[in-house]
Structures are given as structure tokens and as C-alpha cells.
Design a protein that fits this description.
Length: 433
């Protein structure tokens, strides 16, 4: 079961009603000694206040030695999106930038192109209106995008990705081509849920839409549906591979009379149009509502796609890893950690270093157990290295208390951003050559 959600604001309550998701904050932290694969672990640097935050992610600009973090934060009745930048490889972070001074913002996604331009999308909620007068949480919402040309110090005025205002949009993702010319925004669309003129697409399912810009995010073409039945509250993940735009998502398929199949799939923009969702693996994860956790993808210099995800499938519950072969098929999944509790309201995380090792971090448990009871023990954040041959190695020295771990790599360095319960913090793990 998915943990219960305790709303922190009117917008948080709207998201709770919309998605039946789960909020999570972390607890105190501690350090450790270096281990095989990690030469030294640096001191933690404070990024921002950590209370009432969610939807964290981090990304590295390896060409320029920069690291960026983004997150949502609830402040009373308001929810805001922030971006913080490190220009010294994750040692320190500048003051967070409040995106567009938007008090109805959430669920950000962050990407960087080869020139160092930073792109951020988020969901803007119109809290002054309702799509359904009988539903206090049916606020119209849509995706917006802003860009920074000065390493995250300032951002352009947000551009609306779509002019549609009748739908409910949430859980966005972003894909940016290396040259920054093609920018694609992905989101889950709830119009069939809120508008009685539209037929529901599936029990606890939403449509997945993509809108693409060919001018660096200044204007967007009309959105297209790339999946008619996607899980309603799991974050997708955007990336590019061999010049093609791609997104990983948690697909929805009918399972039984009481539960549905919610496995990870990818869609790509091919010459003939968007491909049908291709499952990374048929976990056959049956659930009667949303687990509130999506996948992560990283692409290496050879175009190999690496995927990490959590599943609650019977006999397979835990974190898994697979790659996509040159023929388009996925490798047999490698178990990273067996764990029955989902890391709620945050994607899995995955980063590749310059030796071909994939790094991922897991959360021992969420703030709530499967019955909605608050857990008193601190969350255990663990770091794993996955060698090119598929061997998985835990790095015990890197284990700390906290939540929402996100990873990014620079040459010879792994940067971890997490919530320790009081602050968002970052630390550098210097890697063995």
C-alpha cells in the first residue's frame, strides 16, 4: 500500500486529492569513512532549508564543473519551486532562486545543455479557479518553462508549454537536446478525470502528453498523447539518446478487478512518431493505487541507456537496474536492494561516472509505513555502485540518515544532495580512479 499523505498546504492538499501520493521529509545525518570505490567523503554543504520540501532532483554540468538542484517547498498555503547552483563542483551552493515568484508552483524538472544553459519546467496551479465546482481540489494547472543563460543566477520569464486551461496537468518531466535547440516537456494530464465530457482513460490512470519546442523553449507545438494510460502520480524522467527525445514513466495496464499493473516503460520520438510504451521489465506490479515513485535514466557516451527503478511486485519488491541493448531490448534486471517500501514522492536516482560505473542511492523507508503510521526511526540513505559487468557494491561509508537522495557526477566526483530533515545538504564523494 502507499503511505498516507499529510497535506501541508492548500496546494499540497490539492495534490493529495489528485494523486493519492505521499509526502516525505528526512531526519538527522551522520558521516563515515571512505570505502572501496570512494576515496574520500567531503563535509556536507547546506543548500537550503529542508522542511516541507519534496520533488528534489539534481543534475551536473560536467563541461563547466557545475551542479544544480531543484525542489518544491510548501509555505503555509503557498508552494514554491527553487533552483540552487554550485559553480565549484558541489562544494558550495549559491542562494536559491525562487522561480518566477510563483506561489502556486510544484513538481520541477531540471536539465542543462552543452553550452551550460539551464532549463526548468514546473507545474503552475491556478488556485483561484476550479474545473469542477463540486471538487475543491480541481484547480486548472499547466506546465511552464524558464531558462537561465548565466549559470542559474537569473531566469527568463516563464513560457506556458500549452495554452490548454481546462485540464489538470502535473508530474512534469523535461528533455533537452545537447545543442539546446529541441526542448520537450512531458506531463500527466487529468482532463478525463475532471471534465465529464471526456471518458475516463482508466481506473487511477492519466494520459501522458508531450509538447516539443524547436527554438530552445521559446515556443511549443501542440501537445501529443504518447501514452493513454499512465500511472497517475509517478514522476516521469526525460532524457535524450542518439539525438532522440525519450521519457521513462510508470505505465498503467489493466490487471485484475481490484488492482492494476504499474510497470516502468519508455517512449521515444522516432522517425515514424512516438513509439508505444516499451516495458523495461514486466515486473507485473499489481496495486490498487499509485506508489508515487518514478524511474531514473542515464545515458553513457556509447548511447547505452541505464535505468533504475523501484517496484513493489510480489517477490521482486525493491530497487532494480537494467540497460537497453543496441537492438532496443532491455537486459535482465539486476537487483540493487530488496525493499518493500516505496521512496514516496521522489524519483529513483542514477548517475554515471567516467569509468562506466552507475551510482544509485536508496531510502530505507519513508516517513510513513504501509498503513499510514508515522515512523520514528530515521530514514537510511544508502549508496550503491553498479559496475559495467552488473556487479552491485554497497558503499557502507556513504550511508547517512536523510531522505530524497539525488546524485550527479563530475569527473572523479559523485555529488549527493539529500534532505537531512532540517536542511537540504550536498556532499562530494571523491571516487577512486
Amino acid at each position: 500500500m502507499t503511505p498516507a499523505f499529510v497535506p501541508r498546504s492548500a496546494l499540497a492538499a490539492a495534490l493529495a486529492a489528485l494523486t493519492a501520493g505521499a509526502a516525505l521529509t528526512g531526519c538527522g545525518g551522520s558521516g563515515g569513512r571512505a570505502a572501496t570505490g570512494v576515496r574520500t567523503i567531503g563535509a556536507s554543504a547546506r543548500v537550503a532549508p529542508g522542511r516541507n520540501t519534496s520533488f528534489m532532483s539534481a543534475i551536473a554540468d560536467a563541461r563547466h564543473g557545475r551542479v544544480y538542484a531543484t525542489w518544491s517547498r510548501s509555505l503555509g498555503e503557498k508552494t514554491r519551486v527553487y533552483v540552487a547552483a554550485s559553480t565549484d563542483g558541489g562544494r558550495t551552493f549559491g542562494a536559491p532562486v525562487w522561480m518566477a515568484h510563483d506561489d502556486g508552483a510544484g513538481m520541477p524538472s531540471l536539465r542543462v545543455d552543452d553550452a551550460g544553459r539551464v532549463y526548468v519546467t514546473w507545474t503552475h496551479f491556478d488556485l483561484a479557479h476550479l474545473l469542477d465546482p463540486k471538487n475543491a481540489y480541481s484547480n486548472p494547472s499547466w506546465q511552464v518553462l524558464a531558462r537561465s543563460d548565466d549559470a542559474g543566477r537569473t531566469f527568463t520569464t516563464p513560457v506556458a508549454v500549452t495554452t490548454e486551461r481546462r485540464g489538470g496537468s502535473a508530474f512534469g518531466a523535461l528533455s533537452v537536446a545537447p545543442d539546446g535547440h529541441t526542448v520537450s516537456a512531458f506531463w500527466l494530464d487529468y482532463l478525463p478525470v475532471f471534465d465529464p465530457r471526456h471518458r475516463a482513460v482508466g481506473r487511477d490512470a492519466a494520459r501522458a502528453l508531450v509538447a516539443t519546442s524547436r527554438d530552445g523553449g521559446r515556443t511549443f507545438a501542440a501537445p501529443v498523447v504518447v501514452d493513454r494510460t499512465s500511472c497517475v502520480c509517478c514522476e516521469p524522467y526525460g532524457y535524450t539518446v542518439d539525438g532522440r527525445t525519450a521519457f521513462a514513466l510508470r505505465d498503467w495496464q489493466h490487471g485484475t478487478a481490484r488492482a492494476d499493473i504499474r510497470d516502468i516503460a519508455v517512449v521515444q520520438d522516432a522517425a515514424a512518431g512516438w513509439t508505444a510504451p516499451q516495458h523495461v521489465h514486466d515486473d507485473h506490479f499489481l496495486l490498487h493505487h499509485c506508489p508515487s515513485v518514478g524511474p531514473a535514466v542515464a545515458v553513457d557516451d556509447h548511447g547505452l541507456e541505464h535505468v533504475a527503478w523501484w517496484t513493489g511486485a510480489s517477490g521482486r519488491a525493491g530497487y532494480w537496474y537494467a540497460t537497453r541493448r543496441g537492438d532496443g531490448s532491455f537486459s535482465a534486471p539486476v537487483p540493487v536492494e530488496r525493499h518493500p517500501v516505496a521512496p514516496n514522492e521522489n524519483n529513483a536516482t542514477l548517475a554515471l561516472d567516467d569509468t562506466g560505473t552507475a551510482w544509485t542511492a536508496t531510502v530505507g523507508h519513508g516517513e510513513f509505513d504501509a498503513s499510514g503510521n508515522e515512523l520514528k526511526a530515521p530514514n537510511a540513505v544508502k549508496v550503491y555502485a553498479i559496475a559495467p559487468d552488473g556487479r552491485v557494491r554497497e558503499v557502507p561509508a556513504a550511508e547517512m540518515s536523510g531522505a530524497y537522495p539525488q546524485l550527479a557526477t563530475l569527473p572523479g566526483t559523485l555529488v549527493e544532495v539529500r534532505n537531512d530533515g532540517t536542511s537540504l545538504r550536498a556532499r562530494r564523494l571523491e571516487l577512486d580512479a
